[in-house]
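To illustrate the input format used throughout this study, we show a single complete record. The first block contains the structure-token representation of the backbone; no residue identities are included at this stage. The design step must infer an amino acid for every position from geometry alone.
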């Protein structure tokens, strides 16, 4: 039966979801029930390793139930939205499980988002509570929420990790062993079809989109994506090191899939630093690394991966790099640095996930994002009129499958724009499906620079720039330029000890070595020591625009 409320509805027809259930693709378990089973079977197995050390399944289960008791005492009930702004670690996982146990809806978002995005997320979601870290750098997050409180009439409670303030409650105290847990028999019955999590988009739109997922879509719909990535080399349950935030769409595999569905282990760090990641690899022996392209480019540049003091990375069997466009040079340098399979992964908050296979060729890895798994998602490629196109023809990518979200939360205008009859989602990505069933994502419909009437693909130009022998990382911006439309700015990070690069040298390379059309040449070159990253681990192009404009 379709889930319907004033703020959301399931836009996938019930008979289609029932078909996935009939095929065994839905296990019909809510997140907390699935997690509880693993805690009962393997209580001493490590669930999460963070910077405070390992936490086993039984202990994480206990802490989650204590937190659930505290949240219920704070007035959180089934169907309520609770915003969660915590760094990677056991507390973020406990918050997910506690909210799932209560039938509440988790809205996690990466640490580091500031006033505008915080206000947008909490106001549009009508969050009744927020679980936050007190200080994020120099920002007092509790103080920020106090300033926003008049604009957030639904917000009743704030739980704080770290120093508490008047009017807030201590998250750490709620999870402490001195507090009572909710007895399992006192928990509400939670439907696997009920909403569980809101994924916030990266904010490339005017405001982050709020994408609502059910327990089934997370526990059953997403998990097959991970089960094809292999086990640990020693035959033990896989151990996944997340470089990306667990609160990001890519990080959404962490709690519901790796812990609740698979009974495996998570390794996490408070924030991404390349050398800290490599140190964690040596100490905690993960089997899989999950990383964004921008993070990976910094990681493989670390001196810890070369020389006589090279760090031990032998435990890593696969590196899963999440991004539609992973540059060929990045893949080559990763394979030179790690004795591990490179997995090219593609996904979005809007409801799609696909990756290359462990036995794919190099050309398949750099040229495609693999074959869509119908247990996760099926795809269509359509023209501007919504008609399906043939193999090898580019068009907009539509997706529908067991992981498909319910809808855009409290956003009927987004449902109207991006959801279609039958439950399909318009991703906004341009893609090609080849005759072998491989998906090739070539860019975003909006990610095109209009330079005096010439349309320049940002993805194409960034790939070309990466081929320059001096360039380690590249990002391309279109900057407004009056009657011309936009001018192209190339932003680059150079390899260590690379020869200097100026605009004339770059343009000569593009002309003589690449044969690029002159109309696609950048008009400006900005060289940086390192790219700024968003809280979700992507290149922060808004900061780059500010640097260009300065």
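Output of the design step:
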């Amino acid at each position: 039966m379709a889930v319907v409320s004033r703020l959301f509805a399931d836009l996938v027809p019930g008979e289609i979801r029932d078909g996935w259930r009939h095929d065994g693709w839905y296990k019909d378990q809510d997140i907390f029930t699935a997690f509880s089973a693993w805690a009962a079977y393997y209580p001493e197995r490590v669930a999460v390793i963070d910077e405070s050390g390992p936490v086993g399944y039984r202990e994480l289960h206990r802490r989650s139930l204590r937190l659930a008791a505290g949240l219920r005492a704070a007035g959180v009930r089934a169907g309520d939205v609770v915003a969660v702004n915590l760094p990677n670690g056991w507390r973020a996982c406990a918050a997910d499980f506690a909210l799932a146990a209560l039938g509440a809806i988790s809205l996690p978002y990466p640490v580091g988002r500031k006033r505008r995005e915080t206000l947008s997320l909490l106001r549009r979601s009508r969050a009744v509570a927020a679980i936050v870290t007190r200080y994020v750098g120099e920002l007092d997050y509790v103080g920020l929420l106090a300033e926003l409180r008049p604009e957030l009439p639904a917000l009743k409670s704030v739980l704080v990790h770290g120093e508490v303030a008047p009017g807030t409650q201590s998250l750490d105290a709620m999870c402490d062993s001195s507090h009572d847990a909710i007895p399992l028999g006192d928990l509400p019955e939670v439907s696997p079809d009920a909403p569980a999590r809101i994924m916030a988009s990266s904010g490339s739109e005017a405001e982050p989109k709020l994408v609502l997922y059910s327990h089934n879509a997370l526990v059953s719909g997403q998990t097959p994506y991970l089960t094809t990535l292999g086990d640990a080399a020693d035959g033990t349950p896989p151990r996944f090191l997340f470089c990306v935030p667990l609160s990001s769409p890519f990080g959404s595999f962490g709690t519901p899939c790796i812990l609740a569905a698979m009974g495996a282990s998570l390794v996490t760090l408070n924030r991404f630093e390349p050398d800290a990641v490599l140190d964690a690899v040596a100490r905690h022996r993960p089997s899989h690394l999950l990383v964004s392209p921008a993070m990976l480019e910094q990681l493989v540049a670390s001196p810890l991966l070369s020389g006589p003091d090279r760090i031990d990375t032998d435990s890593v069997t696969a590196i899963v790099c999440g991004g539609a466009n992973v540059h060929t040079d990045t893949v080559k340098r990763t394979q030179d640095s790690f004795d591990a399979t490179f997995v090219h992964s593609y996904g979005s908050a809007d409801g799609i996930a696909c990756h290359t296979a462990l036995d794919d060729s190099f050309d398949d890895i750099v040229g495609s994002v693999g074959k869509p798994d119908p247990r996760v998602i099926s795809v269509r490629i359509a023209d501007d009129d919504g008609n399906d196109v043939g193999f090898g023809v580019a068009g907009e990518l539509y997706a529908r499958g067991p992981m498909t979200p319910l809808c855009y939360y409290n956003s009927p205008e987004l449902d109207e724009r991006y959801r279609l009859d039958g439950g399909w989602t318009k991703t906004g990505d341009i893609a090609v499906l080849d005759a072998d069933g491989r998906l090739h994502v070539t860019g975003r419909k909006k990610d095109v620079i209009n330079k005096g009437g010439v349309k320049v693909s940002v993805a194409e130009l960034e790939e070309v720039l990466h081929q320059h022998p001096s360039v380690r990382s590249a990002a391309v911006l279109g900057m407004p330029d009056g009657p011309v439309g936009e001018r192209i700015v190339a932003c680059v990070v150079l390899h260590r000890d690379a020869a200097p690069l100026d605009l004339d040298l770059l343009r000569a390379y593009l002309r003589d070595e690449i044969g690029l059309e002159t109309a696609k040449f950048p008009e400006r070159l900005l060289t940086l020591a390192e790219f700024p990253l968003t809280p979700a681990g992507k290149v922060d192009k808004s900061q780059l625009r500010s640097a260009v404009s300065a």
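Structural context for interpreting the output: Residues 43 and 211 are 33 Å apart (CA to CA). Residues 239-444 form a domain with the Rossmann fold fold (CATH 3.40.50.12780).
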